[in-house]
Amino acid sequence: MKIRAVELHRVAMPLVRRFETSFGVQTTRDVLLVRVRTDAGDGWGECVAGAEPVYSSEYTDGAEHVITHYLAPALLGADSVTAETVARLLSFVVGHRMAKAALETAVLDAQTRAAGQSFGEYFGAVRDAVDCGVSVGIAPTIDELLAEVGGYVDEGYRRIKLKIKPGWDLEPVRAVRGLIGGLPLQVDANTAYTLADVDHLGALDEFGLLLIEQPFEEENIASHVALAAAIATPVCLDESIHSALIAVDAIERGATSIVNIKAGRVGGYLEAVRVHDVCAELDVPVWCGGMLETGIGRAANVALAAMENFTLPGDTSASRRFYADDITEPFELVDGRLAVPTGGGSGVEVREELLARWALRAPVTLRA
Ligand code: OSB
Ligand code: MG
Hints:
Layout: E1 3-21, E2 24-38, E3 41-47, H1 60-76, H2 83-89, H3 97-115, H4 119-123, E4 129-131, E5 133-136, H5 142-155, E6 159-163, H6 170-180, E7 185-188, H7 198-202, E8 212-213, H8 221-230, E9 235-237, H9 244-252, E10 258-261, H10 263-266, H11 269-281, E11 286-288, H12 295-305, E12 337-339, H13 352-358, E13 364-367
Parallel strand pairs: 5-6, 6-7, 7-8, 8-9, 9-10, 10-11
Antiparallel strand pairs: 1-2, 1-13, 2-3, 4-12
Helix pairs in contact: 1-3, 2-3, 5-6, 9-11
């Protein structure tokens, strides 16, 4: 395909409730959406970077800058681009995986739409609906946490994930376990602990958690190896896993026995499929993480989560868990599952009137 233009949209999406993690509180999502216009049709991609560099080194303004000045010009200058060649064309830029992923996804959307192939078919999906979990933020009080979790249980979610941090861990986990009985439960620390907390984290063992996600900083594989050897709860890496190569290394070193896959974090859905594949070869189950995606990113995540080795429920919640209104048709939970879109490409359509209503500024169009 020839890429004729790259269009950058900035949209502010209000969250239906505050989302607190160990790295801050969010009340809206400032999102960068990318549309590629090609000779075979258009495609959309979503950049999952946050507004500030407090979760990952990438952030929305930085992603927009690197796309504008480096990544988009490389695609616009190429005679022919396919989803399979995007990573190579962009490899001269170090890192910036979330920015690269947004562009690769947009190209993949255009390419598969033109071919009448769904993302699920492209990825090799083996199911037509995926089991869903929900990620629950740190709450002001235990009572408010229980009310929120109770609501999700009533909606049918098949797994609960609690955000934890020092001072908000054993007590909320005990309370939620008491509320939900045997429903699968896991925790996510977003790097808030250190190796000095190993004994404290071992106290989580009594709650029969599916896993503890990323307790230590992303570069620190060694501390996760030590924790995994010391506690019964399986350790699962999120932030640390930047590629299939790193996933294999972390697994072989004993740092992680389950892997959270986020396409943005690994540079796109093609690498996410490779992470899935190497984990399957090593008998390591995976699940699909979330980054508060709009319907654009959610559609792709649901298709990815339909691959065989995604055996644990993902953070693939319904649109309404975060947004009163979605930028595409909303994803709705049916019996604790979301249906994998079947239309060409991502299978969802962007609602242009909402794009205009929520725009932070006019779209920027980049041309060769
Ligand atoms: O660590 O999984 C994470 C949101 C933003 C940044 C990091 C994470 C999260 C979530 C939300 O947990 C998951 C979702 O989108 O449902
Ligand atoms: Mg996480």
